[in-house]
Amino acid sequence: MTPGSGNGDETGFPATAGPAVIEVRDAVLESGARRLIDGISVRLSQRAVTVIMGPNGAGKSLLLRLMHGMIAPSAGLVLWRGAPLTDAARKRQAMVFQRPVLLRRSVAANIDFVLKLHGIADAAGTRDILDRVKLAELAGHPARLLSGGEQQRLSLARALAVEPDALFLDEPTASLDPASVLLIEEVVLAAHRAGTKIVFVTHDIGQARRLADEVVFLHRGRVCEQTPAGRFFDDPVSAPARDYLAGRIIV
């Protein structure tokens, strides 16, 4: 497995950064009197694997959903390749959730359904993507009867079947067995090498070290730092990040 590079320059962005493919500008998300996202601004390049970290309630999942256009900010902008996010752009993205949501169909039919939605009829493509996640032998099995790790691998396969430009993953390996975790990481990194932008939320520091080129660290709905991975893990600049990495509870 190829780990994240963790290399950067004086700007604080990875050396591979380049033009922003996803940009959030001064985003605010409010629920009643509560401000859940508080003026977040981030620029994410196509080539870096971005890992979002932070304590529970920091706003990680909400930021991911804002980027993918699942929810709209109360204020601020979400841009895709420099323009406001559109439905057409969203169709070139995919998301994998912590808990898989699968159709009550066979493993292969879950992939076929997504391909047909995108106007693709490709049985060979279904076999190929199932082979990549080690599910080809279970193609005819009911998806709901798979183990937890197998269901998440199918969810990932379904997201990757249409070769999205960006893949958002919200703690996809939480509570999975180590073999499934490593396989999912390998598939995600292979997608990254093929050109898919990866934005990955995780609480697992070891996983973040394996995957990240850069880390976006959130605390109380704000970005404390967006830092090349090596710099973040070796010398975080913010007190909340230092406490988090040291295992101290931060609220």
Q: What does this protein look like?
A:
There is one protein chain. The chain has helices at residues 60-68, 87-90, 107-117, 123-132, 148-160, 178-193, 205-211, 229-234, 239-245, and strands spanning 20-31, 34-45, 50-53, 75-80, 83-84, 93-96, 166-170, 197-201, 214-219, 222-228. The protein folds into 2 domains: 1-8 and 16-92 and 164-251, Rossmann fold; 102-162. Strands 6-7-8-3-9-10 form a 6-stranded mixed beta sheet, with helices on both faces. A 4-stranded antiparallel beta sheet has the order 2-1-4-5, with helices on one face. It has 251 residues and is an alpha/beta fold.
The CATH C-level name of the largest domain is: Alpha Beta
Within CATH, the superfamily of the largest domain carries the name: P-loop containing nucleotide triphosphate hydrolases
Helix proportion range: 25-40%
Strand order of the largest sheet: 6-7-8-3-9-10
CATH topology of the largest domain: Rossmann fold
Total strands: the figure is: 10
The averaged pLDDT comes out at: 90
Q: What integer value in Å does the Rg equal?
A: 18 Å
Spans of at least 5 consecutive residues whose pLDDT stays below 50 are: 1-16
User: What structural class do helix, strand and pairing data support?
Assistant: alpha/beta
